[in-house]
């Protein structure tokens, strides 16, 4: 069996792909992420020794170009403590290099599992930071459109770390006063709002639905809507059908459930805005009236159970294709064709 390439060679391979203007300023340290059209590397600024992340996007492909344009359009406009910051950009004919803040504290749920203790108060602290960021985006006419736990990262490993919203590849940026209705079908299935499923023009309230899903997972480690069959999953979402059964829900306050219910509202005009969510009594009081029961055991058990079952289904899917396939990310996206079929069935049921 062939020996794996030494890490040094791997870094050298990526360094060779980088524009000399980038490598003149930054030392390439390690590959930390990859997407269909992008690579993310950890770098060090040569003069200040400050660590950063560089996202290298292949713009010779149309999809790569679109993702890059939408991400740059947003990141050039934003400056907020809970949103990943763009430092500088290098552009060539085939690639764009985005130098960004480096979030080293890991994903939201990895931190919860490692923490050992998690209460409703901890949940409100997390949600306050995310809502602050989302409120700021919405004020600027920006809709993220792909809010999910993987896109919420801690800035550093310390207990006092802030949370940052990342990955603006699907974001929509409108100037104030523009028609704020969007039509593009996009997102991740479990977090997608009902109005996108029925292919109606939609507003930034789709982000608030996604935050309802995130809040539900944050307090339980389980998903409000889940089914391996996409059509069944979408039907659950369209009905807004979820329950508070199983652990740790009996220990979760009614006020916390009320917060989730006001976000997982099928009619977007009845859904809370980011400002209303920040003013909800559960968030304002930082769950003061809730029991400070440690929900950690149930949440982490549920999260780990879900991760292992997802791992099993991924393995069986990968037995028919290479695990290196770049399709893995795309298959987690909502597909236009599925929604056409779903809506056709619904129309037939209504007419029948």
TrEMBL record:
Main location: membrane
Low complexity: bias regions: 313-326
Source species of the chain: Terrapene triunguis
Lineage: Eukaryota, Metazoa, Chordata, Craniata, Vertebrata
Name of the protein in question: Serine/threonine-protein kinase H1
GO molecular function: ATP binding; protein serine/threonine kinase activity
Compartments in which it is found: Cell membrane; Cytoplasm, Cytoskeleton, Microtubule organizing center, Centrosome; Endoplasmic reticulum membrane; Golgi apparatus
Its membrane topology: Lipid-anchor
Family to which this protein belongs: Belongs to the protein kinase superfamily. CAMK Ser/Thr protein kinase family.
Gene name per UniProt: LOC113406928
Cited SUPFAM superfamilies: Protein kinase-like (PK-like)
A cellular-component GO term for this protein: endoplasmic reticulum membrane
């Amino acid at each position: 069996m062939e020996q794996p390439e030494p890490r040094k060679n791997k870094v050298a391979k990526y360094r060779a792909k980088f524009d000399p203007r980038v490598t003149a300023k930054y030392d390439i340290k390690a590959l930390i992420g990859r997407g269909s059209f992008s690579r993310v590397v950890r770098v060090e600024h040569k003069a200040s020794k400050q660590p950063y992340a560089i996202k290298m996007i292949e713009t010779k492909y149309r999809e790569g170009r679109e993702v890059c344009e939408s991400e740059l359009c947003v990141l050039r406009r934003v400056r907020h403590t809970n949103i990943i910051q763009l430092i500088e950009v290098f552009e060539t004919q085939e690639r764009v290099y985005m130098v960004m803040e480096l979030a080293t504290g890991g994903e939201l749920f990895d931190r919860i599992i490692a923490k050992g203790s998690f209460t409703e108060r901890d949940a409100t602290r997390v949600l306050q930071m995310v809502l602050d960021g989302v409120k700021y985006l919405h004020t600027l006419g920006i809709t993220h459109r792909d809010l999910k736990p993987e896109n919420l990262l801690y800035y550093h490993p310390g207990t006092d770390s802030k949370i940052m919203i990342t990955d603006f590849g699907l974001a929509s940026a409108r100037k104030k006063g523009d028609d704020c209705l969007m039509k593009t079908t996009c997102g991740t299935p479990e977090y997608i709002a009902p109005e996108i499923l029925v292919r109606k023009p939609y507003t930034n309230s789709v982000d608030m639905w996604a935050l309802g899903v995130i809040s539900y997972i944050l307090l339980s480690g389980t998903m409000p809507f889940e089914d391996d069959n996409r059509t069944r999953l979408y039907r659950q979402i369209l009905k807004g059908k979820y329950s508070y059964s199983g652990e740790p829900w009996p220990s979760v306050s009614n006020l916390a459930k009320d917060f989730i219910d006001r976000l997982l509202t099928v009619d977007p005009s009845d859904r809370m805005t980011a400002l209303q969510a920040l003013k909800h009594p559960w968030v304002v009081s930082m769950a003061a009236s809730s029991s400070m029961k440690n929900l950690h055991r149930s949440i982490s058990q549920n999260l780990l159970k879900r991760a292992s079952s997802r791992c099993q289904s991924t393995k069986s899917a990968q037995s028919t294709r290479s695990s290196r396939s770049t399709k893995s990310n795309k298959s987690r996206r909502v597909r236009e064709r599925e929604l056409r079929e779903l809506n056709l069935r619904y129309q037939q049921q209504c007419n029948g």
